[in-house]
């Protein structure tokens, strides 16, 4: 079945460009467009998209609040949110990830990267580009814990190997990269990631990465 996508951006020209790129793919269909967060909520309820491509800075309701309502406890559909960012201007990407976004993508990303991101998010995975993630977290290092805070009790539920995996997820590594780093199979890594999410009550890898920084387990800028 085709992946149903809703485009949300207050610039019509950008929406047109995204539509042209996505509709050239046989497995993706653009079911609608919205110019602000309020329209995004209405369209999400009406059209039941699989993925919402969400801008952050918009009139009436921004992408952070729209994301929170689309993915929150009261959600009435399967929609995943992929946030679009210009990076240097968007100060609220971390807030969007906390709100429930499954990842983020730069607006000037190559077309192939946009298409792949849609597919990854639709499949239930998180879109966590390592280089952008590290730059983002470094940029907002002052707003995150220094790493000297007391580690939350919840982390003690994790095994030593699960803590290792969480740290690598926070660095933006894929399952394949983590498997190579720890000399285990990808299947084993997926199992560990699943245990981490379950034990910490997190939705996906994006929340896990943010949690690792906020808890002080990983320090911004650390390798």
Description:
The chain is of the alpha/beta class. It has two domains: 3-138, Response regulator (Rossmann fold); 153-215, Arc Repressor Mutant, subunit A. It has helices at 12-23, 37-47, 63-71, 93-99, 111-122, 130-139, 160-170, 175-182, 186-200, 205-214, and strands at residues 3-8, 28-34, 51-55, 80-85, 104-106. Helix 2 runs parallel beside helix 3 and helix 7 crosses helix 10 (205-214). It is globular. The mean pLDDT is 83. Residues 151-216 form the HTH luxR-type domain. One of its GO terms (biological process) is phosphorelay signal transduction system. Pfam families: GerE, Response_reg.
SSE run: EHEHEHEHEHHHHHH
Low-confidence stretches: none
Number of strands: 5
State the name of the first-level CATH class of the largest domain: Alpha Beta
CATH architecture term of the largest domain: 3-Layer(aba) Sandwich
Protein structure class = alpha/beta
Helix fraction by DSSP (H/I, runs of at least 4) = 40-55%
Modified residues (4-aspartylphosphate): 55
Organism: Streptomyces carminius
Domain Response regulatory: 4-122
Domain HTH luxR-type: 151-216
């Amino acid at each position: 079945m085709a992946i149903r996508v809703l485009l949300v951006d207050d610039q019509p020209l950008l929406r047109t460009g995204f539509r042209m790129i996505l509709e050239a793919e046989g497995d993706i269909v653009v079911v609608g467009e919205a110019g602000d967060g309020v329209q995004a909520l209405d369209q999400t309820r009406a059209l039941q998209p699989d993925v919402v491509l969400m801008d952050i800075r918009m009139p009436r309701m921004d992408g952070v609040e729209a994301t929170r309502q689309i993915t929150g406890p009261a959600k009435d559909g399967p929609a995943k949110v992929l946030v679009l960012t210009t990076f240097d201007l968007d100060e609220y990407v971390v807030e969007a990830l906390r709100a429930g976004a499954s990842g983020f993508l730069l607006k000037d990303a190559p077309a192939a990267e946009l298409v792949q991101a849609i597919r990854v998010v639709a499949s239930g995975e998180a879109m966590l580009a390592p280089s952008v993630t590290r730059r983002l977290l470094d940029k907002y290092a002052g707003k995150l814990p220094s790493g000297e805070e007391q580690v939350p009790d919840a982390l003690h539920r994790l095994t030593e190997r699960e803590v290792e995996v969480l740290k690598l997820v926070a660095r933006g590594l894929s399952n394949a990269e983590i498997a190579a780093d720890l000399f285990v199979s990808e299947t084993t890594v997926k199992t560990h990631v699943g245990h981490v999410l379950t034990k910490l009550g997190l939705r996906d890898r994006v929340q896990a990465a943010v949690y690792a920084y906020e808890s002080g387990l990983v320090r911004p800028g650390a390798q």
